[in-house]
């Protein structure tokens, strides 16, 4: 009889567990889930189901509950404390994640909510695996007071400790406001969803009450605002499903950690492929633009590129590509926007990308067509000296293989800034169309031949004559090549083949720096 009683008790306990499990996984209930869907947003669990390979996600700390007794919270249940945490496989590789559940108390962050995120971040760092945060939260749980602020602080700390050690990606998939915005800012990559996500320090209501300015949520902190104006958003997506798919694609380019090998994808492209289209891409007139992205696609395996910050600082391009199945990071001036000139935002964009690639052992390919730094009081007062120095620092600091291709203009300090040999480029090659000089021919002649031009019977004709002679002598790659400043001049069509050979030869590159705690980059 005692055996029957024991069996019944065990089965009862298992039944209770199953009921609790189902109840917690129902999140905020059908009504709140329906509201989430009305906003064209998926629930936290639906997002995780799309992000991870089928049936691989393992939840961590499902049964965690808040313990606050203030402001009626003692009578309120918040399933899983409003956040789902765990790990699983994405395209067969282990990834850790936290997804805030807006259907449950608005996904507000309290003490235990934060500690769940701490736990899974600690696991990711210890396991040396990527971490993905899916943010959809009304912010700090005000009823809990200071412990919610402590929760954010612990997340920021882990973001920082994991920086450069494991890849960190944050997707803004709903509201993210106040202190909550700084975890995304500390992550490596920020994704946002058009129309349903926004992030800001202070919202429209506070802005109106304090400074009288009227602005909508989307205008202030929507995906396009942060993608085109602030540069906070790295990738804009159309909807939740598109966001999750793009996160998976980005992860496919990245290693698990700074100590892991780069992922190797099956390559159906040929190492012998000649890029004949590149022989005609540079216009005959030096002031005409062309599409630098066509060059990048031509070099990349199967023309596939993953561009970062496409809508911000468009005068420079940063992107991931694959060369014979292995990841490479590309930095390229974009002649279609401000002639590819370097300014404050372009310097910041490129520097951050370079440092990420170097941290995770991703080789750097630089395509140079730069007329100089942006002149004017706006740029000087915005700190172009300080911001431009970031680019010099980032390239010089990087120890990964660095290959530079000069396609057209490479003038003055901007030539140096775009990974010249003296910033540590392992190999600099130029197309026959390259113009490597201190400055353009006309500007140089105005300085060198000032008196001769002024005293000539026809100053304009004399200037044109001298500029043509200067251009013939210096605005080409041969003078630089004769001094060994660049390694080689190549036919544009051979660029991919050369890069493949160089990456193969440099794959075991080792370069040591002075022993110290860390550099002091001019932030």
Could you list the spans in which at least 5 consecutive residues all have pLDDT below 50? none
What proportion strand?
15-25%
- What is the approximate shape? elongated
Number of strands: 17
Class computed from helices, strands and strand pairing = alpha/beta
Assign a percent range to the helix content. Answer: 40-55%
- Terminal CA distance reads 75 Å
- Rg, rounded, reads 27 Å
Looking at the overall shape, the CATH architecture of the largest domain is Alpha-Beta Complex
Please outline the major beta sheet: 8 strands, mixed
Total helical elements: 20
CATH superfamily of the largest domain: 2-enoyl-CoA Hydratase, Chain A, domain 1
Task: Count the domains.
Answer: 3
Query: Which CATH class of the largest domain applies here?
Result: Alpha Beta
Overall pLDDT, averaged? 92
Quote the CATH topology of the largest domain: 2-enoyl-CoA Hydratase, Chain A, domain 1
Structure commentary:
It is a single chain. The chain is an alpha/beta fold and 523 residues long. It has three domains: 42-253, 2-enoyl-CoA Hydratase, Chain A, domain 1 (Alpha-Beta Complex); 276-439 and 476-505, 2-enoyl-CoA Hydratase, Chain A, domain 1 (Alpha-Beta Complex); 441-474, no CATH class. The chain has 20 helices and 17 strands. The protein has helices at 2-25, 30-38, 44-51, 111-127, 146-162, 182-186, 204-211, 217-221, 223-230, 240-253, 292-299, 344-359, 377-382, 384-397, 412-417, 441-448, 450-454, 459-474, 478-482, 495-505, and strands at 58-60, 83-90, 93-100, 131-135, 168-172, 175-177, 189-193, 198-200, 235-237, 305-308, 316-323, 326-333, 364-370, 402-411, 427-430, 435-437, 488-489. Strands 10, 11, 12, 13, 14, 15, 16 and 17 form an eight-stranded mixed β-sheet that branches. A seven-stranded mixed β-sheet has the order 1-2-3-4-5-7-9, sandwiched between helices. It has a two-stranded parallel sheet with strand order 6-8. Helix 16 crosses helix 18. The model has no long low-confidence stretch (mean pLDDT 92).
């Amino acid at each position: 009889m005692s055996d029957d009683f024991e069996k019944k008790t065990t089965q009862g306990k298992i039944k209770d567990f199953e009921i609790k499990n189902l109840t917690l996984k129902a999140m905020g209930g059908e009504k709140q889930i329906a509201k989430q869907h009305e906003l064209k947003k998926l629930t936290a669990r639906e997002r995780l189901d799309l992000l991870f390979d089928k049936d691989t996600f393992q939840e961590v700390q499902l049964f965690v509950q808040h313990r606050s007794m203030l402001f009626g919270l003692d009578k309120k249940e918040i399933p899983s404390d409003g956040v789902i945490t765990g790990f699983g496989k994405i395209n067969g590789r282990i990834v850790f994640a936290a997804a805030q559940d807006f259907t449950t108390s608005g996904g507000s962050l309290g003490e235990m909510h934060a500690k769940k995120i701490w736990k899974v971040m600690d696991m990711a760092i210890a396991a040396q695996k990527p971490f993905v945060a899916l943010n959809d939260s009304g912010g700090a749980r005000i009823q809990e007071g200071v412990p919610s602020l402590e929760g954010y602080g612990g997340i920021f700390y882990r973001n920082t400790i994991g920086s450069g050690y494991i890849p960190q990606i944050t997707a803004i998939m709903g509201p993210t406001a106040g202190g909550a915005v700084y975890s995304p800012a500390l992550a490596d990559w920020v994704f946002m969803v058009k129309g349903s996500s926004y992030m800001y320090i202070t919202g429209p209501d506070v802005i109106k009450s304090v400074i009288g300015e009227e602005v909508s949520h989307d205008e202030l902190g929507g995906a396009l605002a942060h993608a085109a104006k602030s540069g906070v958003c790295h990738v804009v997506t159309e909807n939740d499903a598109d966001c999750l798919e793009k996160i998976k694609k980005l992860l496919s380019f990245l290693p698990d950690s700074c100590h892991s090998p780069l992922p190797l994808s099956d390559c159906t492209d040929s190492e012998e492929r000649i890029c004949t289209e590149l022989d005609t891409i540079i216009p005959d007139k030096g002031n005409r633009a062309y599409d630098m992205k066509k060059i990048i696609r031509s070099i990349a395996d199967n023309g596939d590129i993953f561009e970062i910050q496409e809508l911000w600082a468009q005068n420079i391009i940063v992107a991931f590509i694959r060369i014979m199945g292995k990841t490479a990071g590309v930095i390229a001036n974009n002649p279609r926007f401000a002639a590819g000139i370097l300014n404050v935002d372009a310097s910041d964009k490129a520097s951050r990308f370079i440092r990420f690639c170097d941290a995770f052992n991703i080789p750097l390919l630089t395509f140079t067509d730069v007329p100089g730094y942006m002149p004017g009081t706006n740029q000087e007062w915005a700190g172009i000296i300080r911001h431009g120095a970031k680019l010099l620092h980032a390239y010089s600091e990087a120890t990964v293989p660095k290959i530079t291709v000069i396609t057209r203009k490479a003038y003055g300090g901007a030539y140096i800034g775009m990974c010249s040999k003296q910033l540590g480029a392992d190999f600099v090659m130029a197309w026959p169309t390259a113009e490597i000089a201190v400055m353009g021919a006309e500007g140089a002649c105005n300085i060198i031949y000032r008196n001769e031009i002024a005293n000539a019977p026809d100053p304009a004709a004399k200037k044109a004559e001298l500029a043509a002679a200067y251009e013939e002598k210096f605005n080409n790659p041969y003078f630089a090549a004769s001094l060994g400043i660049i390694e080689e001049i190549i036919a544009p069509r051979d660029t991919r083949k050369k890069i493949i050979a160089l990456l193969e030869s440099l794959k075991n590159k080792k370069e040591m720096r002075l022993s110290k705690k860390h550099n002091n980059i001019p932030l």
